[in-house]
Every structure is written in structure tokens, then in C-alpha cells.
Amino acid sequence: MGGISIWCMHFIGNRAIDLANHERDLQVAYSSGFTAVSFFVPIVVLMAAFIAIGTNDHISWWRITIGSILCGAAICGMHYLGNSSIKNYRCIYRPAFIVGAAIIAVFASIIALSLFFVFRGVWAHSWWKRSLSALILAGAVSGMHWCAVVGTRYRLVNIQKNNEPSRNATVIVVICLSLGACLILAGSAIFRARKMKKSALRAQQITLGTAIFDKHGRILVDPDGLMPSVAITDSFLEKNSREGFSNTHPVFHWLFQASRNWSGISTLLDGMKHHLLQLPHSGGEKSGIQLINEHGEMIKDYDAIFRELFCVAALKLSEQLGEHITSMGVLWDDVLSTGAYPVRATPRLRQPRTPISDSESTTKEEDQAGVDAAEKGFPGFQTEYGRGSLMLLVRQVHTGRDADRLTSAGFRFAELHQVSHLIQASMQIQSSDFEKTLQALATHDNLATGGSYSLGPIKPRLRICASEYLEDAPGF
């Protein structure tokens, strides 16, 4: 985008230069060869500049300086190479203005890129800060261009008869490139907005996230400062008003143990995915499993299906990170409440009646709550509002090779105080001090596989094995 903007600004700026009292045949005309070459020069040089600055999370001023010099060289080089494409004039340059133009380009680039990468390094890249950096960088391009133009004299070499079509063609190309760049930027903005909206939606769901820490206590996040996560299901189906999904629930106990035996679970994942595909899906969609039948009752083997959904979600997370499922870490012994506002329906199921239970539960019978369309497949539920839940797989990265592999997948390690508020806000995590929670996870004593684990309020149970799952799971 930067190369396109420099190239377009140059030729639009040159279009504003009027020579020989508006004589059409004496206006600047361009050769196609040098014009095409001048387009690729800023793209290649700017790519090298941003690689020099942006490949390391650590802010290095000498890297920023070298990158800014390359950026200034791209601006100046494109300008003078673009002027070489003028075929009916020979440009004569005054050295003082060449030096002045280079100084403007380099120093403005230093200021703009310093602001941008310093803001990025501390995760303070709000839109107005990015706009400020872009404005300064645009000033570098424009200021350098007009400083160089003032120091340029045009000596006529030959008269180009009817050169207006070539001039108009250049403008048309500039307009097309500018519109294309704007569309790409708009698409990127829309994609990021959808990503943030999706993250907010997960706050109303049962979500599995991963908290991966390096040896310095930094947490792994994506380029937007968000924790990698996937939705397990839209909601946990409650059998009654007293039941809720927490770390005291028997299903959570199973998940807690399963995360400490991924090697055994990994052999069952194909069977789990196959079984989930065989379940009824709402509207024929593979993403929405119908967990309630047409009578408003929980489908058979719901607990086992929820376990499968958890394991498959962990597999999706591992694929996002480019890791094997056995390296995903262990489940933290608590469940975080998410959802800043009550916007999600929490389903409670209709209990099968007997002649006795009908008379005893007339005044205690619970209203049937709504379920998201992806999980119910039919209308007719009343709604009761509730919140989502977040479970975290915790892992420590002890080697530089493992850390490099994760960063090469498009993620970054960030200081907790820089991104904790971003994670909490995006996932709407209900915690009075989420940064302190992350610090506790980063120094967790029980991240290694094997041995004993601190279960908090959970009573110790036997380690899960593959045979235990096979006994409980349907279809195996």
C-alpha cells in the first residue's frame, strides 16, 4: 500500500505541473518502461524497510533508523526514477534541493515509523495514533516531492504531438490503483471488525482459550492483542435451575483430567469428529448440532457429546497455532464468567414427567428457555438471559525454538500489563483484576505433564484413560 501511495502521489503531483503556458504538445509525457519500473522500486524497498523494523517485537532504535532511511530512499528513488520516464524533457536538478528533499523524506519517515512501531510495541495502536503516523508519512512523501520539484528545471528535448492520451492513461492507472488500494484497506478493516465482533460473540458462549507463556512471563496473543480461542458450543444445557457449568461440575472434572492425557485423547479425535458429524444438525449446517429434540428435552448422551465438543475445540486451537494436540497444555482449574451484559439465552430443559412428579412440581416447574438456532433447530422457546464461560488451557514455552515456531505462525508474545485489558475487554471477562489472574497462570507450578496437580476446589480423581472415554462415549 505504501509503494502504491508514493507512486500515485508522484504522478498526480506531476500532472499539476504546467509548462509552456498550457501548450498541450509541450506538457510532460511519459515512457511506459521507466514508469513501470518506478512502480516496483518503492514496493521492494519499503518491504525491506518494514521487515528490518517489524520482524522483532523488541523496539530497536537502530532498526527504526535503518528502516526509515530505506523508506526515505524509496520515496526519493521513486521520484527521480519516475522523472526519468519523462521522454520529452530532460530534468536538471539543483543539488541543494536534492539534499533537502532527502532530509525531509528520511526525517519525516523516522518520526512516522517511530510513532507507529512504538505504539505497536506497547499495544497502544488506536485509530487516531495510526492516523497520526499515516499523516506524517504522507507529509514526507508530499513534502519531498514538492521540494524536489522546486529544484528541478525542465529542458525541452523534443515535441510530443498529441501526448494527451498518454497523460490521461497515466491518470487512469493512478485512479485504478488508488481505488484498488482503498478497497483492500476497507476489506482489511471489515475483516478486523468481524473478528472483533466474533470475539465479542464468544463472550456469550462456552469458549476454550489458550494461555501460553514464554520463559519471561509474556503471553501469546494474535496481532490484535487477543488470546487464541474457539467456541465449544453456544451454551451449556442446564437440567435445572440449580445446575450451572463450573469447576465443580462432573463434566468439568472429566475435561480437567482429559487435558492431562492428550496423548490418549489424540487417538480418539477422529472417532469424535465422525460421531459429531452423525448427529442431527440444525438446517443441515455442520456447525450447529441440535442438542435438544423436538420435545424440548436434552438429547441422549449429552455429557459425552459435550466432552467430544471440548476435545475437538482443543484440536482446532492446536491447528490455529500450528501445534500438535499433545502440546496444548493443561486445563486451568477454574472457569471464568464472560459476557458484560445479559444478551445470551441460557437454556434449561423440560424434565420428563411422571404422574407423581406432575403433582409435586406444579409450582416448581421451570420455564423452558431459548437456545440458539444453531443448537435447537426449531423455534418456540422462552428466553432467560445469562452469560458465557471461558476455560483456559495453560502452557509454558521453555525453549526459544518453540517460541519462534509460535511467532512464525503469526502470533506474538506480549507483556501482561500491555494486553490484559485488551483480552478482558474483547472477551468481556468478568474479573476484578484479570492481569493478576494471568500472572498467577504464568507462574503456575503445575504446568508440566505428569505428577500431582493443585485442583483448588476440585477433589482429586484418578487420571483419565482412553478406555474410560470409550465406556462412556456413544458410538464407540
Automatic annotation (TrEMBL):
InterPro entries: MHYT_dom. Residues 348-372 are annotated as: Disordered. Residues 1-155 form the MHYT domain. PROSITE patterns: MHYT. Keywords: Membrane, Transmembrane, Transmembrane helix. Coiled coil: none annotated. It comes from the Eukaryota. The chain crosses the membrane at residues 28-53, 60-80, 92-119, 131-151, 171-191. This is MHYT domain-containing protein.
